[in-house]
Amino acid sequence: MAENMMGDIISDHRERMLNLKKYYPFFKLIDTNFSQFKDGKYEILDMGYILMAILRFFIEENNFKEKDVTYIEYLEFTTALLNRDFGLKLSEEEAKEISDYIFDKIKNDGRPFEFSYFDPVDKKRYISRMKIIESTIRNNTVWYSISADAVEFYLDTKEIRDESRINVSQLLLEKMINSENFRGGIEVVERINEEVNRLKQKKNEVLVILSTDVYAGIEAYEDFVETGMKWFEDEEKLFKKNQELISKAIEKLNAGQTSVKSESYYRTVNEIYNLENQLKLAMNRHAELLRDCTLMQKMTDDAVRKAKLSRLRSHMDFTATLNALIKRDKADALEILLNPLFKPNIKKNFNITAIDDALTVKPAKYEFKEKVTNEELKDIVFADEVEDARIRFNYIFIMNNIIALLSKKDSLTLKEFNEYMEKAYDERILTNADYYSFFVNLCQKEKYNLGGNEMDNETFLDGILKEAYEGKDILKFELEKQQAQMLEIGDNLEVSDILIKKVS
Hints:
Blueprint: H1 2-20, H2 24-29, H3 47-64, H4 71-86, H5 92-107, E1 113-119, E2 124-130, E3 133-138, E4 141-146, H6 148-157, H7 165-178, H8 182-212, H9 214-227, H10 232-255, H11 263-315, H12 318-328, H13 334-342, H14 352-360, H15 383-406, E5 411-413, H16 414-424, H17 433-442, E6 447-450, H18 460-469, E7 475-489, E8 493-503
Antiparallel strand pairs: 1-2, 3-4, 5-8, 6-7, 7-8
Helix pairs in contact: 3-4, 4-5, 6-7, 7-8, 7-10, 8-9, 8-11, 9-11, 10-11
């Protein structure tokens, strides 16, 4: 017993720490004290409430409306929240001032939140990083979206009632597949299976109520339709979309491998196939639920029809009516019942022109035949595949230039690299969105090992670099952020300088 306990403590510790990671930014942010900001002018504000409201806003825009958020939209939401919930009557300048302060705190000044923990298996201390808000640049505009970890944190605090829980979980699953967190995706699918089982139990409860009280059963059925069956079509579409993403993940993994496959490759393949099997199980259960609900709808209609007939019989009892007529000794009231039987409508009319139309109509002289061609169908290239290919090409292009400069000198600053790229290519390269996002991804780590057979695969950029440089000559370099030195990129963009040092 003691051995099992110690085994659980040691082997499960890393997974528990990674699970706690998504809570760390919240508890760090709620320590924000507004009494130190602007001489306590906004001391009434509560960072915990504001953060949860902003997370819900981003989920609404990113996941339900399927669009990213601009800073102007965030500013409008935050201003309305401060006015409504805290009673602050802010001018436009004051609203922007406090919104900027809150946004910088949530973004952590552009750096990920770092969560440090000790791994007893490797006997090393690791740093896990998490962002709440992610950003991209498109058409000279910065677009913001919520991270997968932040979505999972929000769902752990309380499920969203207004939307399908299966839909929300599948949107989280999509983010995890895209970020190659397949183990976390399995947990999300298990949550989907639990929700399907809950809906099945709810359906059975509706049938029980329907069998005892038709009117209460109809109310329960309508409530179930509104909260459960309403989202079936959207859920089916998301199931198919995530199944396609898993297939693409397998293809991408196989395409990036050499003939000699590493241990990490087989581990990742095993996680992907486990995720795929769990998703197929969830899809089958969801289809069974849909069939059961269709049958329940038919049973509900039958119960309603029978209830209507029973109410009709209770209001028109022919035996009771006959007894009443005998007691009153008046047969005149029978006229209302018998007249429809003795006066059927036997006159039928047929339009003469319809006969002419029937005689003069002519069948179609020719039938259109389907043309069959032997042309092969072209492979469909999806928009996200084109996007991924462009990002991969640009990232490798930028890294090749960094490698070329580091082969001539031991260190390189971002300012020097910008000047080199501007001279070697064109000044427009500094306004390229991929150029900006490359350095954002690069700064997620402080050390890089390019080449060899054991490259890291922790971040999105690692996956691209591993695919391009694994097995080649090894180059090691470190990053030092120069916070005091700021660089202007374009007209409205300013970033801190970076020192890139080659490590022998």
